[in-house]
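Team,

Forwarding the record for the chain on the shared tracking sheet. I've put the sequence and predicted structure together so nobody has to dig through attachments.
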Amino acid sequence: MSSRNELGWLFGDLFDRRIEFEASHRESAPSHMISTIKNNEATSAKWAASIRDYRNALVNPEVAPQKVADELRVNVRDFDACLFDCFAEIAAVFRLQTLGFRSFEVVMREPNESTPDLKALRNEDRAVIDVKNLRPHETVETLLPKLFYDRKLKGEDMGSIRLEVRRSFRGTLNASEKVGLNRILCQIKAYPRNEYISESLSERAAANFIIVDGMGDAICSDAVVLSELISDMEAFDGLFSKIVSNLSDAVRQLYSPAASTAGIRVAAMRWDVPSFRITIPGQLREVAAQRLREAMTAAGKPIDLLVFTDYEFDLFSSLNLQMRST
């Protein structure tokens, strides 16, 4: 199958219908991913390969497009965020295969009923899997480039500049702070070139960036010093809180009547790593192991937890035999 056929098998005409929706609903966030998939051959091929592997791992592949059509709507405000929620299930299957799971079965959600996302086998044990996508927090470094590309996709000429976002406030932005970011974008071309700029968004938050000559793109640069590699754990507090919050919901899904025959119950969470070059503190896995094991105990019922990324880095896994024995 070509990339187009693979994408069409899973998503049907959803991307085209989303583009039509955006044209008549200017308040919605334009889909940067649809544009990239349609116009970048490498990205399209990568998504197609992931979908192909996903389909081949399923015992009921015919259900996967039905589930996508049921759960991924064209009229959401932020289509890309929902698209990656869908992609999390694809990515989870690939990662769980490397941990010995096979014979995956897509589970359709039932109205007013808790159900897992997937069923599978590990050795001869039946397993159920609940999949979550840990979306990046709405920080300066995640939102400012996105707003830049939103304007570009809506037809504004950004072709003469490059926005280089430097390390900024990394807490979750509130509504007034987001207004401040939009105000920056409204005057982005008026800023002096090649100068470090710090714009206050509130008493607690600032956006730091540089405008240089470019081709209409936005990048981020962490600019972290050595001491922060060891001590900067505060940026991950929101991530840990989100994982803990999702655990309670996962318990409901994994102990629902639809999962009653399972011997293995897995909460699989894809960490949607922010697009900026995030620095991983040296003790992050150690801190994650302590905090997440405590959260698993507090959940009250035994489940396994896997927090993975699309890269060669898992934040936490109780499915690893070495971790089970520690």
